[in-house]
């Protein structure tokens, strides 16, 4: 069972930056893809970004492209989400997720992932 622990959320002014971290509890050989999602109050969980552990492929939602960057550190079993030029509409709980397989549909779907973190709150003040 993989456990994921997010950190780095908080309150920031619009235009500011934050870096989220997600530490996995075990070696990443059992994980193919790591993703970040977010969920604002009364809204569905929304894909933000994803990365493969082995090949370095990354994907970002159009709404964050150019502002957010996903990256990973295999030695630390950790994936990051660097967020810049934050907007009030980025306010949400951000979740880290891990998938054991590439071959199960779209990485942008929550159903693609096997494990989830507890979430970290990001609030962007206008």
Strand content: over 45%
Q: Separation of termini?
A: 40 Å
Look at the structure and give the mean pLDDT.
Answer: 93
Would you report the number of β strands? 11
H/E element order:
EEEEEEEEEEE
- Unreliable residue stretches: none
SS element count, helices = 0
Percent range for helical residues?
A: under 10%
Rg, nearest Å: 14 Å
Any idea what the shape is?
globular
Characterize the main sheet: 7 strands, mixed
Structural class based on helices, strands and sheet pairing: mainly beta
Write up this protein:
This protein is mostly beta strands. Helix content is 0%, strand content 48%. It contains no helices and 11 strands. The protein has strands spanning 4-7, 10-13, 18-24, 33-39, 46-52, 58-60, 68-73, 78-83, 92-99, 115-116, 120-125. Strands 2, 4, 5, 6, 9, 10 and 11 form a 7-stranded mixed beta sheet that branches. The chain starts with a strand and ends with a strand. The mean pLDDT is 93.
